Automatic annotation (TrEMBL):
Protein name per the record: Lipoprotein
Region entry Disordered, spans: 295-328
Highest taxon above the source species: Bacteria
Bias (Low complexity) ranges: 316-328
Organism ancestry: Bacteria, Pseudomonadati, Pseudomonadota, Alphaproteobacteria, Acetobacterales
Length: 328
């Protein structure tokens, strides 16, 4: 026999059938962006100078540089085709001759000129590499760009792992700014339910935005203008849970949307708030995880890509200590 609590939860879910997360705008971590996690990223950009590799003529080198910049921008890496400037991380592109082929190699270099990671592209027939149309260089750049982006992500993860204040080594400090726009007691009920559901070993809640890594706020919009075939009057409700990083940049948003019986939430939300907040809490955790890169595998010691399936860093223990301000 179903318990009273289970019956109430079942009724709440039935009242909110279809109220589900629509994926939101969850950002993939950007390897060279400060994410408010207390770590300093490699740089604000990745310089891509013209290659001086032997066997690549000037026109081919220019085409290679242009193609590589475009390919990295497509991977959300802020690459710039320019000579290396002080403080730049940069991509060194070289070639190795092997029999009648050319093997392009891509190395991520630190501002001190030290190689931090590398990968090789597929071998290309020498005649094609030296062709004036630059198509071989363009294809190589497009093929390796995802791998180079993974190298950069691995570099960031390795830095985070060494930084005791990064989100690999402590929970994210989150400020919940509350709920606005819900009918009835929805603002209060949703806020109370989210506050209860959200904290875990990876996140804790703070009472102020100062020192928080992320801020979460929810807005609710109720619309009476619903087109439906139902004989019961309907309303359209949308809950948007927005996550902002410490700099105020949107890290992602999760949206819950459904048509409900008109005025069914005009007074008490009850377990409907609990069901919605439980789902939203999981989505917000996912946004923070993906945006911060805290589960990304660090680059291997030999500077190659992380082994596929590498285990993520163990979850940090919950902390009640005040959050440290993010580094500039």
């Amino acid at each position: 026999m179903m318990s009273d609590v289970s019956a109430r939860r079942s009724g709440a879910l039935a009242a909110l059938v279809g109220l589900s997360l629509l994926g939101g705008c969850v950002d993939v971590p950007h390897p060279f962006r400060h994410d408010g996690s207390g770590m300093q990223p490699p740089t604000a950009r990745l310089a891509v100078p013209v290659s001086t590799a032997s066997g690549t003529d000037e026109a081919g080198a220019q085409a290679w540089q242009h193609a590589m910049v475009e390919a990295m921008l497509a991977q959300s890496v802020p690459a710039m085709g320019q000579p290396v400037k002080p403080g730049d991380w940069w991509l060194k592109m070289t070639t190795t001759a092997q029999d009648d082929t050319v093997i392009p190699t891509y190395a991520v270099m630190t501002p001190k000129g030290e190689e931090r990671g590398h990968m090789s592209g597929a071998a290309v027939p020498a005649a094609q590499w030296q062709a004036a149309d630059g198509q071989a260089e363009t294809r190589s750049a497009q093929d390796v760009a995802p791998g180079v982006a993974e190298l950069l992500t691995g570099i960031q993860a390795a830095q985070m792992q060494k930084d005791p204040n990064s989100l690999k080594n402590r929970p994210a400090h989150v400020y919940f700014a509350g709920v606005q726009g819900a009918p009835g007691d929805g603002d209060h009920a949703l806020a109370r339910a989210f506050t209860a559901a959200f904290p875990d070993a990876h996140e804790d809640l703070r009472h102020a935005a100062t020192g928080a890594d992320y801020t979460v706020r929810c807005t609710v919009v109720l619309n009476d203008a619903v087109t439906t075939t139902s004989t019961t009057p309907q309303q359209h409700i949308v809950l948007t849970w927005k996550v902002l990083d410490a700099q105020g940049t949107e890290a992602g948003a999760a949206t819950q949307i459904h048509d409900i019986a008109a005025h069914s939430l005009d007074s008490r939300w009850g377990d409907v708030a609990v069901a919605a907040a439980d789902e939203a809490a999981g989505a917000v955790r996912q946004i923070i995880t993906r945006y911060s890169g805290r589960e990304n595998a660090p680059l291997a010691a030999d500077g190659t890509l992380p082994t596929p399936g590498s285990a993520p860093t163990p979850a940090p223990a919950a902390s009640t200590a005040p959050a440290a301000p993010a580094q500039p």
